């Protein structure tokens, strides 16, 4: 026996007697929710909470209950309560929202026609598809935002049901339930108008009041509010339908259990208060995303196309919203980067959830149908809970930042704000342009003049002074440029070929025929002025790996293979409109490779700079005119000796940095961006990873004074991933030891940052302070378990008399490099003695200065000195030309690289 409620929903007036001065009136919704009373079902003990009648059977014959499938007192209380708050005559509860729809669609028979929306919950679509295939029911999907699309499908004698969601799941479209119900009643009065009201709950919308015949709700959502039960609710006013529903539920046996009935009843008591809070926060979240420029679907926003209709039907916009980013991979990253928003299907719980419908709740709709119905693959659905809205927005902002969906932009007052990055649109336009070109419809523009100069570029490596490993947990790391550098040289060719040579990396060399050896069909170019999307184009990476790598590089050496892929990737995405420069690129490095000193980032920066110059996407400032009369021995330029620093404009540095980061992604998958930032900008910076309640970002340490350090490569290879994972395990197992160590490292980094930028601090105090901090930071790294016996041996050697120096591991540890501070008064003879001792022990020490210049480009460039084709494979190249940079560059020993490069002319640095 299914419970049914036969009195008016507003049968719980104030207890006051009706009088002319004080009218009896219905209690407000929240009062009704909290007040569970059924006058016809008084509890024998007056219990204030409805008891759980955890019983399958009831004794006796002819009693109100006999078997819980047919009826149970706990469920009756719940159904009475639901009918009351839904303005309904009848309410039924079943095992899930889908069970509700199953019960309702059992009213159909083969040949019946159902009209449903084209944006609807994946499970609903699945059940309708099942009925179409197995039940002989004809299903029409239409755009229910436009009631006139339904009219031609209303087929008297055939249309049995019109199934609506409003707002729809997940695009939050609005269907005019009242208008549609009236049209249906007029044209096909026998058809039932059924509404899935889950998104609104009876608090915000009561479709029976707008002409619906049947309303169902997934009680799992707002009604329960805590995601601790599954339930479905069906309500209606018509006795004939109620009778059939009760019959089906009893026959099928899917009525809600006594325990779940109890839980649902408990949840409903707080429905209004939860919904109020959730809805207010949802409005803030929607407005926040809307302000950033995302396309947000939420009926509370002023520009929502269905807002006016929704406001006629409902008392609020609810707490579910969705938005698109323009890039599925970016959406995946956003969803994966949130901490507070749980990645989960469903909605309506007190805790906030984030999901990608196409991968989750709506995955059962096949991709082609999703596309045909306009359900975007990059759609993110947000279900707002009761947490503090500022925490929710902060968490979302950090995720958007981390995913590259927003970026900081300067404000007129010197401050900063976040704006949406616009990676996806120009990319689509570029693709379109390519497509047009490939189909022969494009207009060919005159190709630009081929870049005929040799370009000589260089970028420094980096050393982490403080904060390594701890940086993974949100601690600030201090990184600085070292004066060991990577150098890159391009020389023009005129034979349609491209070559890469890496003499210090297993002497790798390869030449490609640009037209035939590179997988051009796999590339989506990034147009000038546009930014590369935050994620790599994996299709292109794969195509290069499988179709462009020479067998030797593919098989032999992982470093040269990765360096080649990064080079070709950048070359190809920067190429557009058939302008495919032909040249040789040689990279050399005075930095030890794979020792944690940022050699890959300095290589990436050189590749990015060289390619941007060759593709004519950046240019360097031309030499200013002479300030006085020039003579053969005096070029007469004003020249203040700043050694070229700050001569390269910030725009050039920013562009190179962006592309160097892309090359770093090819090389490392998920780099932090610190290494390439140091390689490009030089100096020193403080880096904090986003997350752990921090915004994250990099800040230059202004006023950084250059310092002398000894970098000792232990020559012991290390496994960075394993070391990072080891710290994670220790942190998990021994938080009382590891957490304080991380906190102490943050204190050291903060102090180091202050000291390094304090212009008034004496040199002596700075060096003393740094010595202490080096010792302390190393001790904490030992606690984290990332030191190694060779690093301890280097520490002991440098600390021993007569040296007395402070050393710490730098980077991942477990081998790799140690960094030793050399005070200004440390004698040359002592330094020589130390170097000899370290070399004798099998280490490779480098005396370096840190905090120096970033990216450098050789200039002024005398184009006539190295004319076109001087070193090219062009058969017509004139003979007897001055030696090109290329040959001399290749000839230098690694130690001579830096002084030789400096001697080539005037370098411009960032
Ligand atoms: N795997 C489930 C997914 C349930 S989605 C639940 C909810 N209605 C929502 O919109 O999130 C299934 O396939 O049904």
From TrEMBL:
Cellular localisation: Cytoplasm
CDD domains, per the entry: CGS_like
Domain GHMP kinase C-terminal intervals: 770-827
Reaction equation(s) it catalyzes: (R)-mevalonate + ATP = (R)-5-phosphomevalonate + ADP + H(+); L,L-cystathionine + H2O = L-homocysteine + pyruvate + NH4(+); an S-substituted L-cysteine + H2O = a thiol + pyruvate + NH4(+)
Pfam families in the cross-refs: Cys_Met_Meta_PP, GHMP_kinases_C
GO biological process: 'de novo' L-methionine biosynthetic process; isopentenyl diphosphate biosynthetic process, mevalonate pathway; sterol biosynthetic process; transsulfuration
Cofactor requirement: pyridoxal 5'-phosphate
InterPro entries for the chain: Cys/Met-Metab_PyrdxlP-dep_enz (IPR000277), Cys_b_lyase_euk (IPR006238), Cys_met_metab_PP (IPR054542), GHMP_kinase_C_dom (IPR013750), GHMP_kinase_C_sf (IPR036554), GHMP_knse_ATP-bd_CS (IPR006203), Mev_gal_kin (IPR006205), PyrdxlP-dep_Trfase (IPR015424)
Pathway connected to this protein: Isoprenoid biosynthesis; isopentenyl diphosphate biosynthesis via mevalonate pathway; isopentenyl diphosphate from (R)-mevalonate: step 1/3; Amino-acid biosynthesis; L-methionine biosynthesis via de novo pathway; L-homocysteine from L-cystathionine: step 1/1
Single Gene Ontology MF annotation: mevalonate kinase activity
UniProt cross-references to PANTHER family, sorted A to Z: CYSTATHIONINE BETA-LYASE, TRANS-SULFURATION ENZYME FAMILY MEMBER
Name of the protein this chain belongs to: Cystathionine beta-lyase
Organism for this UniProt entry: Botryobasidium botryosum (strain FD-172 SS1)
């Amino acid at each position: 026996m299914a419970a049914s409620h036969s009195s008016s929903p507003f049968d719980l007036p104030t207890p006051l007697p009706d009088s002319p001065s004080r009218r009896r009136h219905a209690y407000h919704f929240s009062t009704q929710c909290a007040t569970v009373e059924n006058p016809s079902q008084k509890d024998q003990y007056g219990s204030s909470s409805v008891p759980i009648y955890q019983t399958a059977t009831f004794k006796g014959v002819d009693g109100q209950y006999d078997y819980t499938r047919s009826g149970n007192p706990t469920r009756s209380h719940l159904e009475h309560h639901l009918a009351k708050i839904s303005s309904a005559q009848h309410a039924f509860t079943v095992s899930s929202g889908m069970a509700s729809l199953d019960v309702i669609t059992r009213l159909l028979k083969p040949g019946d026609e159902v009209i449903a929306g084209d944006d609807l919950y994946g499970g609903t679509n699945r059940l309708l598809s099942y009925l179409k295939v197995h039940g002989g029911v004809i299903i029409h999907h239409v755009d229910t935002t436009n009631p006139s699309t339904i009219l031609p499908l209303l087929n008297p004698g055939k249309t049995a049901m019109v199934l609506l969601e409003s707002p729809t799941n997940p695009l939050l479209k609005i269907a005019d339930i009242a208008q549609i119900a009236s049209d249906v009643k007029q044209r096909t009065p026998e058809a039932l108008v059924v509404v899935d009201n889950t998104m609104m709950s009876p608090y915000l919308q009561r479709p029976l009041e707008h002409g619906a015949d049947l309303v169902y709700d997934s009680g799992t959502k707002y009604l329960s509010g805590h995601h601790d039960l599954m339930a479905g609710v069906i309500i209606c006013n018509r006795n004939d339908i109620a009778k059939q529903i009760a019959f089906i539920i009893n026959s099928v046996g899917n009525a809600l259990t006594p325990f779940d009935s109890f839980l649902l009843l408990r949840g409903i008591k707080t429905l209004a208060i939860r919904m109020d809070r959730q809805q207010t926060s949802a409005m803030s979240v929607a407005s926040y995303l809307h302000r950033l420029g995302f396309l947000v679907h939420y009926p509370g926003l002023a520009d929502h196309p269905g807002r006016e209709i929704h406001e006629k039907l409902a008392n609020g916009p609810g707490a579910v919203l969705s938005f698109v980013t323009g890039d599925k991979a970016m959406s995946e990253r956003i969803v994966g980067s949130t901490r507070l928003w749980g990645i989960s299907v469903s909605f309506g719980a007190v805790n906030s959830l984030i999901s990608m419908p196409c991968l989750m709740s709506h995955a059962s709709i096949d991709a082609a149908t999703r596309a045909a119905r306009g359900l975007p693959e990059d759609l993110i659905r947000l279900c707002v809970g009761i947490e503090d809205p500022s925490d929710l927005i902060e968490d979302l902002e950090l995720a958007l930042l981390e995913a590259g969906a927003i970026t900081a932009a300067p404000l007129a007052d010197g401050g900063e704000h976040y704006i949406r990055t616009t990676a996806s649109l120009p990319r689509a336009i570029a693709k379109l342009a390519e497509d047009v070109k490939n189909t022969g419809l494009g207009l060919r523009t005159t190709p630009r003049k081929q870049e005929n100069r040799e370009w000589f570029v260089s970028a420094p490596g980096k050393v982490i002074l403080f904060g390594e490993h701890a940086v993974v947990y949100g601690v600030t790391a201090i990184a600085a440029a070292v004066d060991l550098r990577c150098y890159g040289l391009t020389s023009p060719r005129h034979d349609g070929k491209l070559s890469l040579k890496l003499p210090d990396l297993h002497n790798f060399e390869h030449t490609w025929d640009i037209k035939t050896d590179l997988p051009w069909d796999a590339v989506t170019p990034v147009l000038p002025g546009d930014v590369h999307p935050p994620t790599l184009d994996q299709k292109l990476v794969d195509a290069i790996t499988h179709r462009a790598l020479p067998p030797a590089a593919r098989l032999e050496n992982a470093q040269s293979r990765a360096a080649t892929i990064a080079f070709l990737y950048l070359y190809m995405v920067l190429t557009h409109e058939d302008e495919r420069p032909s040249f040789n690129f040689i990279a050399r490095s005075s930095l030890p490779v794979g020792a944690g000193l940022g050699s890959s980032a300095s290589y990436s920066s050189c590749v990015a700079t060289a390619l941007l110059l060759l593709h004519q996407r950046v240019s360097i400032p031309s030499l200013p005119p002479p300030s006085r009369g020039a003579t053969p021995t005096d070029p007469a330029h004003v020249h203040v000796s700043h050694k070229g620093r700050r001569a390269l404009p910030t725009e050039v540095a920013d562009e190179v940095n962006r592309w160097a980061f892309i090359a770093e992604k090819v090389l490392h998958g998920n780099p932090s961006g610190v290494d390439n930032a140091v390689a490009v900008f030089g100096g020193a910076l403080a880096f904090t990873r986003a997350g752990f309640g921090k915004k994250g970002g990099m800040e230059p340490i202004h006023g950084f004074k250059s310092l002398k350090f000894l970098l000792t490569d232990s020559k012991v290879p290390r496994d960075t991933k394993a070391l990072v994972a080891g710290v994670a395990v220790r942190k998990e197992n021994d938080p009382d030891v590891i957490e304080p160590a991380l906190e102490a490292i943050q204190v050291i980094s903060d102090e180091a940052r202050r000291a390094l930028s304090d212009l008034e601090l004496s040199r002596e105090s700075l060096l003393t302070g740094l010595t202490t901090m080096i010792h302390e930071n190393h001790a904490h790294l030992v606690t984290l378990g990332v030191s190694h016996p060779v690093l301890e041996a280097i520490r002991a050697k440098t600390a021993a008399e007569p040296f007395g120096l402070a050393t710490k591991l730098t980077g991942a540890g477990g081998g790799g490099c140690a960094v030793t501070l050399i005070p200004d008064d440390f004698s040359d003879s002592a330094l020589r003695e130390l170097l000899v001792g370290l070399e004798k022990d099998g280490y490779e020490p480098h005396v370096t200065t840190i905090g120096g210049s970033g990216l450098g480009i050789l200039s002024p460039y005398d184009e006539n000195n190295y004319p076109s084709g001087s070193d090219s494979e062009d058969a017509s190249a004139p003979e007897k030309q001055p030696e090109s940079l290329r040959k001399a560059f290749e000839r230098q020993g690694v130690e001579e690289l830096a002084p030789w490069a400096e001697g080539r002319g005037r370098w411009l640095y960032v």
